[in-house]
């Protein structure tokens, strides 16, 4: 009985830990998703340690901007005509569901070229990927 109880506490503790690890990120911080102020979204995204379960929020004026998730090729060429997902509410909460690279851009004319694009890089869980070396690599 005591063992069952401590097992319960352990699992509840793990669940609480999972919740506390999930982070909410507002894209561009106080600036939001915009052309104003020349926010470097690539740099912004590269400075974060995203994980599965995190929430990415895009805040913007819907008259001028939107959010499209695209393929790597379309990201490179700033082509939003074949989106994997489209967001247009002006306050889009996107929950990171899987590891990998997630490419986003604004599909209004020339906005992507002007810098409204970024990559959310989500590393695979460290327990899944065995590390070959003695030190941890953080090349994200
Ligand atoms: C965007 O991609 C579509 C489909 O792949 C293609 O037809 C279109 O020409 C592309 N647009 C630009 C501006 O490259
Ligand atoms: Cu835009």
TrEMBL record:
Keywords on record: Glycoprotein, Metal-binding, Signal
Residues annotated as domain Phytocyanin: 23-124
Signal peptide region: 1-22
Cellular component terms per the entry's GO annotation: plasma membrane
Keyword Amino-acid biosynthesis: no
InterPro entries assigned: Cupredoxin, Phytocyanin-like, Phytocyanin_dom
Domain of life assignment: Eukaryota
PROSITE patterns: PHYTOCYANIN
One Pfam family cited in the UniProt record for this chain: Cu_bind_like
UniProt-listed PANTHER family: BLUE COPPER PROTEIN, OS07G0570600 PROTEIN
Protein name: Phytocyanin domain-containing protein
Organism name: Tetracentron sinense
Species classification: Eukaryota, Viridiplantae, Streptophyta, Embryophyta, Tracheophyta
